[in-house]
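Exam prep: given the inputs below (a chain plus carboxymethyl coenzyme *A), describe the expected output before reading on.
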Amino acid sequence: MTDSNKSATLTVHGETYELPVHSPTVGPDVIDIRKLYGQAGVFTYDPGFTSTASCDSTITYIDGEKGELLHRGYPIDQLAGKSHFLEVCYLLLYGELPAAKDLEEFETTITRHTMLHEQMQYFYRGFRRDAHPMAIMVGVVGAMSAFYHDSTDVSDPQQREIASHRLIAKMPTIAAWAYKYHIGQPFIYPRNDLDYASNFLRMCFAVPAEEYEVNPILSRAMDRIFTLHADHEQNASTSTVRLASSSGANPFACIAAGIACLWGPAHGGANQACLEMLAEIGSVDRIPEFIDRAKDKDDPFRLMGFGHRVYKNFDPRAKVMKQSADEVLDLLGIEDNPKLQVAKALEKQALEDPYFAEKKLFPNVDFYSGIILEAMGFPTSMFTPIFALSRTVGWVSQWKEMIADPQNKIGRPRQLYLGETARDYVDIENR
Ligand code: CMC
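Solution:
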């Protein structure tokens, strides 16, 4: 990993230190500061990890300048166009595209793990009826640790494998049941003759009183949304999963932590926030008012679905999502969708505005996904749970990679302390 011809020199307090430099297969070089504190007695300071690699990984690569996203080397637009979600899951988990026999076996395994322990229903029923589905997801996924004891020993590779399959297989059932509970309808059990996306749609929209036919167009669009969200290297929720699991915590607890992190509006919650924003804007003529608010330093309002920590050119997922939104609305015969019209006009006006151009702010994956999900019949509260179910494979793949790494150690950042220095306790009557 280290290129012996490359090193960095750092001068601290007049002393010079030679730091090793690692070269990745693609992307910028990385200065290794692991021994810096021991040698020089200083820390580095990087809130938000804007310049810090927290691990090495072989799963996903992003080039933010080029707008490129690769899973195990394969570009996301090729995977979204030619592959399907479970094949991408296999690729992320095992590193290579599966042979036909391996894919069949993997799909069978995932399909056979989709049911939830029957007693988990009681757990759902403990939530208030109006609970947000993300609140239910955080709780139920964490509670899996109490239901599946035989796959919580992280030191056993076989248990890790079973936990991975369980999480990927059960997450659609967990998300669909969170929705059903939220709207007061009976839970619908999974069906093994349906593919992953169709099964999810049926568990969300079927009722026991009548047959439900899965629309293949919607199933394909759903599968593409899953694929586009499958992994995104060391984002906030993935880093949360890695940090939680660095202590040796069980996989279900760690994924629950990832779901909690994803919920925030700066991360996975942006798809819900974006659709709510498009509804609030309401019509094309009101766009300038919102653009002005987004530019105003004294107004906390931001254009939701715009901007990204890594992408500084365009988000390749947003491109596919925009095309998908057009296709789905067209195929469903929804003409003149006001939110799509506002979204397209907002994108155009923002991209022509020097503020967004200078700060390299472009639509991200969440900008168009809500429009598709709403057209499919999902309420905004289900957008982030769908993101969580899609991202589960990414979290699990990164977790497995980390646990299998012999260099894995507990994550423990340092700090720049700016508080009081040591002082003596003052008795209450003397304060
Ligand atoms: N609208 C208006 N201004 C923005 C926006 C926005 N959406 N995003 C960033 N800026 C400005 C920001 O005010 C700052 O300006 P200045 O340098 O003058 O202070 C500059 O651009 C850089 O922003 P930052 O917050 O320092 O950048 P970041 O890398 O820390 O944040 C982000 C990235 C995604 C959190 C942010 O762009 C944002 O809040 N976007 C809206 C929420 C959103 O769509 N999130 C989904 C991200 S993609 C899917 C996912 O990760 O789950």
